Amino acid sequence: MDVEKIKQLLSDLQAGNISQEQAIQRLSALPYEDLGFARLDTHRALRRGLPEVVFCQNKTTEQVIKILTRLWQHHDRILATRLTSQMAADVQVALPQAHYNPTSRLLTLSKAEFSSPDKESPYALVVCAGTSDLPVSEEAAQTLEFLGSRVERLVDVGVAGIHRLFDSYELINQADVIVSVAGMEGALTSLIAGLAACPVIGVPTSVGYGAHFNGIAPLLTMLNSCSPGVAVVNIDNGYGAGVYAHLILQRIHKGLDR
Q1: Does residue 164 surpass a pLDDT of 60?
Q2: Is 36 left (phi over 0), alpha (psi -120 to 50) or beta?
Q3: 105: number of CA atoms within 13 Å, CB side?
Q4: What is 123-257's CATH topology?
Q5: Which is it for strands 123-128 and 106-110: parallel, antiparallel or unpaired?
Q6: 230-232 and 54-55: which strand pairing?
Q7: Cα 209 vs. chain centroid, distance in angstroms?
Q8: What are phi and psi of 127, to 5 degrees?
């Protein structure tokens, strides 16, 4: 249950549209609902400002459908991550309103039309080193968009052709937070941090040849960045980087509102 649903519930109670018993019944889903195989944190949107997101990897399709169906009763917008195309197709049979992006492997449900942020709003720049890193960078970018943040993108600007990055220096310089997604040796993140004045979030990917060790090499490179102001999330964790960047932008918005 999100803030708007709580406000509507209180308004209905005040107007006499529902009884106290009905209000208590609706609130009884707080703080979680036990499905046996999962405990849905329906209180999270009120507690943290962000609803619970469903991580679908290693869950059965039946479990995912049941979780999403129940969350859909409590929230106006839902995000699910790491769905295969087949799982997404099965979910869409049960929930036809669901939208799936095969690149990011994100599935979303929304009861209201999504409104884009103002073009003058603070923004996150999501930088992708290579096209092979797109699934992770799009997971980050689309998570930010789902949460309501403004996003700009730079694709295929890795250090093997560094002049491609310098052509977008103004976009880098004006960003309020940057998500840098890179595989192989992961050097792009240190380079960006040396150019940008804002916080940089490094996302190592499991893209590369043998000595890359499935993302360990770029993870260590980013953790050992000689440029200050770099935070690093786990390998392939585009979602986590997107949430972190969104929280930074939220604080900037609060400062501007004051």
Answers
A1: yes
A2: left
A3: 19
A4: Rossmann fold (3.40.50)
A5: unpaired
A6: unpaired
A7: 27
A8: -110, 130
